[in-house]
Specification:
The complex is a heterodimer of chains A (123) and B (110). With 123 residues, chain A is mainly β. Chain A is built from no helices and eleven strands. Chain A is globular, with a radius of gyration of 14 Å. Classes of the chains: A mainly beta (123), B mainly beta (110).
Amino acid sequence: EVLLLDSGGGLVQPGGSLTLSCAASGLTFRSHVMAWMRQAPGRGLEWLSSISESGENTYYADSVKGRFSISRDNSRDTVYLQMNSLSAEDTATYYCTKEVKDTFQVTLGFDPWGQGTPVTVSS
Amino acid sequence: QSALTQPASVSASPGQSITISCTGTSSDVGNYNLVSWYQQHPGKAPKFIIYQGTNRPSGVSDRFSGSTSGNTATLTISGLQAEDEADYYCCSYGGTRHWLFGGGTKVTVL
């Protein structure tokens, strides 16, 4: 069974930084594209960032580009999200997830998802 | 890139069928056959239930089905059960390795 364990969330002041971690198990981690999503309280899901299998290629939503940085350590089966210049609008539960691909390497969706780690930006 | 449009809520009695629409544009839903759907119960992580607009991952009930026409994707839940009460989100590839989600639809079983 593939499991993703998100961690690192907490209370941070506006303008501050935080790094989230996601530890994966039950899969050949280095063979999968990983992604971070978030969900603000009472709101919908938002894709934030994806990272290629090797970590060479990264992609970001406009809302976080230049402030957030995704990375991975394939020796530790872990993906990270470094978040800088945080504001109240970044308050959300953050989820790590894995891209599901078909035999032609077309992304079909995201599965599974971590349990989520809450981030609150407040003074 | 804007979020996809879903109705805020849908309700029906047990045993009935419901449909949830997901409207995008010719740059996302209408351009790529890459719409997926997710079910999310309160306080839980989303669950992947439909991919490429019409296909179910292994283990997902066949009461869930999907379709796509033009810029709109639709999720249908047949034989509604109490356990289907949840939020449902559509997601589409938006090009340049970006993904868009709908605002979510709350399904209530009366």
